[in-house]
Amino acid sequence: MSSSSLFFRSRASARFLHRNLFYNRTISRAIHQTNSALPGKSEKVEFSSSSPHGSSKFVKVAAGFAIVGAGVGAYGVFTKSNTPEKPIYGSNEDFKKALREIQEKLGDDQISTDESDLQQHGYSEWSSVNAERLPVAIAYPRSTEDVSEIAKICHKYRLPMNPYSGGSSLEANFAAPYGGVTIDFLAMDQVIALHEEDMDVVVQPSIQWQELNQKLEHTNLFFPVDPGPSAKIGGMVGTNCSGTNAMHYGTMKDWVINLTVVLADGRIIKTRRRPRKTSAGYNLTGLFVGSEGTLGLVTEITLKLSPIPENTRVGVVTFSDIGKAATAASKMIRRGIPVQCMELMDDVQMSVVNRAGGTSRVWKELPTLFFKFSGTKGQVADSINQTKETIQPFADTFEFAKDDNEAHTLWSARKEALWSMIALGDEGSSVWTTDVAVPISSLREIIETSKKEIDDLGVFAGVIGHIGDGNFHGFILHNRNDADEQKRVEQCVHNMVERALEMDGSCTGEHGIGMGKKDFLLRELGYDTVDVMRNLKLALDPHWLLNPGKIFDFKN
Question: Origin, by domain of life (predicted)?
Fold first, then answer.
């Protein structure tokens, strides 16, 4: 592995290690120190240290809140006739009182106002966009009851609540545009109950999916949704994410049985019971999955599990051009060949993997499809034979693993794709990761057109995708301090999303909307549909306290 690849991995790992170390030490700062640090209503604090947005600007911290006009009590529940232009939150004095009460309920070691902690919870190197403000405090609950107490206090004083799980989201899904209290579920990372006979498990939101599968190894069961390795179950529920297994196993919504949710006012609800099948009332579970914490704070999740396949084989197939790769993928989907994973990497991305040196072999720098086949040995052999037969007219070379070691090697290029792109960057570089989804019939056109535009704009980007379900990504390496290059990258992303929408596709297949794609959501669904979502939020969260500024704005 190259030194640059190791550096970037170490840097990312250090960020998560810092979180865990920080949590485990006691926050000794007294409440009167917080009081003395809080400015008046019209003031903002500016750190003298470098801004997370770049050295050219200071970070504006909402040490108070977005105070707009009169107190919220004058409005009660908002209606069309009395809805203000912006959400109305508590004053600085309200914040001080709330912080005191949260500390009294939870203890000093479960609240932080440390500057580095605030920056870490309000800014992300991975995100396409970041808020100008940071949270003003971080709460670390240990239980559903703790979360409920936090929500009751924040509701009482009208303070925004920003849920935080793994911190790996890509569209500022956990940012704090209105300041407020960020609720970090770091300490809620346990398996609560395992029901082997029923093939389900109850977990807390901060357990990583890979860690969960390690705990399940002895059961011959696994949880198949596989996004990035740092993703945690709570955030996965929030964005309705997926991964390489989506072609066969589906997305997060297909694997959630029920949720325990803390509402904006602190009430605790369970969305349904545990059987696989029910027609009892509204599908509240489906309502909260994908809502990005804007409707409630998820504290427990019951997940379906699947048997580990008896046999798994990996294959790699190269093509002379990306159009042929996309056509071959479409032919396989149309024929219904059983495939667990079908992933695409273009010639640029294959070159990036070679240059980064993070794998044990050199790859052909051609558009490449990566396959996983699973089932009984007979089923897998039959699927491989059908695959060869179907894509032979389009393919350049075939390679199939004979054992687990070869399978690991062949899949390593796909596993290293993002890390390899990051490793090529230098100081000031970022990788903008965006995704869109289109109907299968539009795959070839959108990939070919997007590739051409990337070249025309002079942008360095790899195309990679879960091509089996019409979802693909652009990994765009750019210098965030170069205004001209940044503009070209933004134009590239904008055009890619607009192109997907013109094809009756979606602006995001698995990353969520967050702050970064709110305008695209309006284009995708229209004002009336988004307004239905807004009214659902107002019914559950009339004071706009839960993860405000995400998915859609307060008013159209």
Answer: Eukaryota
Arithmetic mean of pLDDT, 310-327: 96
For 271-317, the pLDDT digits (tens) are 999 999 999 999 999 999 999 999 999 999 999 999 999 999 999 99
Separation between Cα atoms, residue 181 and residue 134, nearest integer Å: 9
**Helix and strand counts by DSSP (H, E) for the chain:** 18, 20
**Which residues make Cβ contacts (< 8 Å) with residue 26, sequence separation at least 6?**
108, 109
Euclidean distance between CA atoms 418 and 12, whole angstroms: 13
What CATH code is assigned to 311-502?
Answer: 3.40.462.10
Spatial distance between the Cα atoms of 204 and 234, rounded to a whole number of angstroms = 8
Number of neighbours of residue 227 by Cβ within 10 angstroms: 23
* Alpha-carbon distance values, 141 to 205, 235, 261 (Å): 11, 16, 14
Q: Is 270 helix (H, G, I), strand (E, B) or coil?
A: strand
Is 191-307 a domain of CATH 3.50.50.60? no
Token pair of 56 as six digits? 């050219």
The closest of 369, 375, 249 to 312, measured between CA atoms, is 375
Residue 489 clears pLDDT 80, i.e. is over it: yes
User: Measured between alpha carbons, how far is 93 from 285 in angstroms, rounded to an integer?
Assistant: 37
* Strand-pair category, 221-222 with 256-262: unpaired
Per-residue 3-state assignment (H helix, E strand, C coil) for 322-341? HHHHHHHHHHHHHHCCCCCE
Task: Considering only residues 13 and 277, tell me which one the structure prediction assigns the higher pLDDT.
Answer: 277
Report CA-CA distances (Å) from 305 to 73, 218, 256: 46, 13, 10
> What's the Rg (C-alpha) of the chain?
24
- Asked if 15-185 and 311-502 have one fold, the answer is no
The pLDDT tens digits for 425-465 are: 888 888 999 999 999 999 999 999 999 999 888 889 999 98
Domain spans, the chain: 15-185, 191-307, 311-502
Q: What is the pLDDT of residue 278?
A: 96
Fold of 15-185: 3.30.43
405-439 burial code (b ≥16 CB/10 A, e <16): eebeebbbbbbbbbbbbbbbbeeebbbbbbbbbbe
Pairwise CA distance, residues 307 & 21, whole Å:
36
Banded model confidence at residue 79, pLDDT cuts 50, 70, 90 = low
Element (H, E) at 94: helix 92-106
Tokens 């932080």 -> residue = 112
Closest CA to 145 of 297, 303, 301, 302: 297
Distances in whole angstroms, Cα of residue 452 to Cα of each of 184, 322, 323, 449, 464: 42, 11, 12, 5, 15
Please give the mean pLDDT across all residues of the chain: 87
Question: What tokens were used for 191?
Answer: 């398996």
Residue 237, H or E segment: helix 233-239
